[in-house]
Design brief:
The chain has about 130 residues and is mostly helical. The chain has one domain. It contains five helices and no strands. The protein starts with a helix and ends with a helix.
């Protein structure tokens, strides 16, 4: 009798959809992991940039999922999007500052003419 009941048990129809979404999500995670591992040897900064891009992709995928978004979710999404945009700007500013510091130093560790001029101007030695 038990065997007859177990043969009649069927999975809900949406289980297949859930499994497909889960597999897709796992593939995205693996893809992101591979991308991050490729960037990791270069610099920690590249990892930060990659992380921000991955988070943007997750938000975009959520918005494209077609699910109805209520007011609370919209508020949360707005906050996440604002923070991601702010993070991108902060990271770009950091990269620019870091680039300016690196461009004013010479490769041998000596001061460049530009740096010397800035120091002399600051000290009013000209």
């Amino acid at each position: 009798m038990c065997s007859k009941k177990s043969k009649n048990i069927k999975l809900p129809p949406d289980t297949t959809t859930v499994n497909k979404k889960l597999k897709t999500h796992i593939k995205q995670i693996k893809k992101a992991k591979l991308q991050t591992e490729k960037l990791l040897p270069k610099s920690q900064l590249d990892v930060a940039e990659a992380s921000i891009e991955i988070l943007w992709e997750i938000v975009f995928d959520y918005l494209c999922s077609g699910s109805v978004i209520d007011t609370a979710e919209m508020t949360s999404l707005s906050s996440v999007i604002q923070r991601l945009a702010s993070s991108r700007v902060q990271l770009a500013n950091f990269v620019n500052k870091r680039g300016n510091i690196n461009s004013t130093t010479s490769p041998q560790g000596e001061m460049s003419e530009e740096v010397i001029e800035k120091i002399e101007t600051a000290l009013k030695l000209l």
